Fold:
Amino acid sequence: MRIAILGSGGVGGYFGGRLAAAGADVTFIARGAHLNALRERGLRIESPKGDLHLPRVDATDDPMTIGPVDLVFFAVKLYDSEAATRMLPPLIGPTTLVVPFQNGVDAVDTLAGAVGRSHVAGGTAYLAAVIAEPGVIRHTAMDRLIFGPLDGIRSPLLERLLDACRPAGFEATLSDRIEVDIWSKFARLTVFSGMTSVTRSPIGPLRSDPDLLAMMQAALLESIAVGRAKGVPLPVTLTSEIEAATEALPPGAKSSMLQDLERGRPLELPWLSGAVVRIGQEVGVETPIHRFIATLLKPHVDGAR
Structure:
């Protein structure tokens, strides 16, 4: 199985690195200093689950040099999605699947418009990891991939991906209800990213302050209500599941959006709390907490540019 990682940052670098270490044929598509480091020094992963150094990895900025692959992990930041879709055609063969491991709920439609729905599967990732420096991925919490066919019909290619993930040291699930999984992650992430970013605080102080905790709970109910109004059959247990998962996070855990904010980088805000507001308007659900978050962070959406 040949896998191309389009977007070799925290998500793509971590999962691609673990798969490569387990013997999968992985090529990283990257750019700039990160690409140079991958070519010169390989990929290093710093992780509480064990550090990893791959002294040599296949890395390029030109998909034409790779050619058609079995799977593409589409893991670029959401604001880079449109430009990244233009890199897909050389990677697409007759049976290639592109699996988005991004935040938000818009990726499947974006990719279907670029390469056709028959070449797209659904995916989502639970991971706290960033590029600590060029060529180095720092992983701090969670490492789970969920992927599945859009129509729920058995996919031999995704079953092969599941087999490739088993020896790689992270949790992987082949789902027959991937839309529910994507929206479940979205509900959780919109709260985590929005609240940590708007307060410039890791999760610990938010959990310990009654007012901030109540605000997080209200934001979660908004996200879930929007998903259900959209027609996604989110389970009745989702609220308690997300609250338990949030309680289990290390007190110092920060969302990737907060880390982007601290580093002066662009934010995925329009596809997270901004999307809750946008979709809420479409389906007639009020979202005052997410509107507050989206409004206060609006001046920082483009980063320091």
In short: The mean pLDDT is 96. The longest strand covers residues 136-148. The longest helix spans residues 178-199.
